[in-house]
Every structure is written in structure tokens, then in C-alpha cells.
Amino acid sequence: MIDLTARQVEILNIVQKHAPITGDQIAEMLNLSKATIRTDLSKLGILNYIDAKPKVGYFVGKRGTPNREEKFRLMQMKVGDLHGVPVIVRETTTIQEAVVALFLENVSNLIVTDEEGNLAGVASRKDLLKVTLGNPNAATIPVSLVMTRQANVVTVSPEDTVLEAARKIIARQIDSLPVVVPSNSDKPGEHWKVVGRITKTNIIKMLLDMVAED
């Protein structure tokens, strides 16, 4: 919408939310006179962002509808519709085995689980690099000693929206999130079963696919 002014974008948003709506009603919501927004309404109509019917009012035009539909579709998409298969190692996995898994799977981190398959933590490339540099005995150290523990791991559930997952990824400056559901573990405390992994790549690919459909 680079060809629209801030007021024209505001008018379009009003029409998208309240259509059909009259010019007088739009002007009232903006605290302006109808004469003041007449040029804006005309431009939006010429560009097909809005359309009008006599005695009915303004409604979303052909150019305005796809944006609204795509935004709604994006807001409603769930993590469970998008996440990939998690790359998992056990707490007892050695650093050497973890490094091999990291590079074979071409991922930025590994999800670590306990013997029951519950989330125990996450081991990143940085975690593994820090412990291996200058440490000839690092290869046999269990990954549980260097991972970020479960209490400090940011997760999402399959029912969370993709937008919420993206916000967490950006806020924490990380590449991916474990997707978890409550575990039936008999152990005390909160436990989570890992069911997937959502990444920046998943989200970017989804956006590219949505653009390609237009």
C-alpha cells in the first residue's frame, strides 16, 4: 500500500471492519467532515481498494480483499500445521555424538530428552563449541552438562499460532523452537513431550508459498 496515505489506509481498515458503511459514518469515525475525505474515498475507489453501491455504502474492493484474507489466514495458522520433525538426542548422548548429529542433520541445535522422551533441554552449536574448544576430554562428556535446561527453554504448543512462534523466535534471537504437549509422566513437576520443531525456515517457506499462490 505504498501508494496510499496514512489516512487512506485508515479509511480502508474501517471499510474492511465495518462494511457496508456510508461516507458519513467513515467521516464520523475519523472525526472529520465528509468533504475532507471525499478525495481519499475517490482515490481508494479508483485503485479498487474499495467499492460503493448507492443507498448501501462502501465495501472492500477487489484489491483490498486479498490483503484482508491473507492477513486473516496468517493470523489463524497453527504451529501444528507447519512444524517439522524434531532432531532429538538423549541426555546421555556424548558431546562427540551430539556434534555428529548436529552436522548430519544440518540443524542449529538439538532437542535433548530424558529416558521417557520428555523435554530435558536444548543444546546449540554455541553450547557444543564452547565445551569442545581447548578441551581434549570433551568428546565423552554427556550433552546434559552443556545444554540449556528445560526450565529456560522457550517452547510452543501445536495450538499456538505461527505468529506467536515467530514473535518468540525474534524476541529470543533464536533459530527454532521445540513444539511440545503435556506429558503423562509420573515424575513430579511439569513435563513436556516433544512432538515437533518449528524454525525460521519453516515460517519463511510458508510466507513464500502464500505469495506464490497469488
Q: How does the helix and strand content classify structurally?
A: alpha+beta
Distance between the termini: 16 Å
Alpha-carbon Rg, integer: 25 Å
Fraction of residues in helices?
A: 40-55%
CATH topology of the largest domain: CBS-domain
CATH C-level label of the largest domain: Alpha Beta
Mean pLDDT: 88
* Broad shape: elongated
Could you describe the largest sheet, including whether it forms a barrel? 4 strands, mixed
Which residues sit in consecutive blocks of at least 5 with pLDDT less than 50? none
Please identify which CATH superfamily of the largest domain we are dealing with: CBS-domain
Question: Can you give a write-up of this model?
Answer:
The chain is an alpha+beta fold and 214 residues long. The chain folds into 2 domains: 6-60, Orthogonal Bundle (Arc Repressor Mutant, subunit A), CATH 1.10.10; 75-211, CBS-domain (Roll), CATH 3.10.580.10. 43% of the residues lie in helices and 18% in strands. It contains 8 helices and 8 strands, in the order H-H-H-E-E-H-E-H-E-E-H-E-H-E-E-H. It has helices at residues 6-18, 23-30, 34-46, 64-76, 95-105, 125-132, 162-172, 200-213; strands at residues 50-53, 57-60, 88-90, 109-113, 119-124, 148-149, 176-182, 192-199. It has a 4-stranded mixed β-sheet with strand order 3-4-5-6. It has a two-stranded antiparallel sheet with strand order 1-2. A two-stranded antiparallel ribbon has the order 7-8. A hairpin with a 3-residue loop joins strand 1 (50-53) and strand 2 (57-60). Helix 1 packs across helix 3 (34-46) and helix 2 crosses helix 3 (34-46). The longest helix has 14 residues, at 200-213. It is elongated. It starts with 5 loop residues before the first helix and ends with a helix.
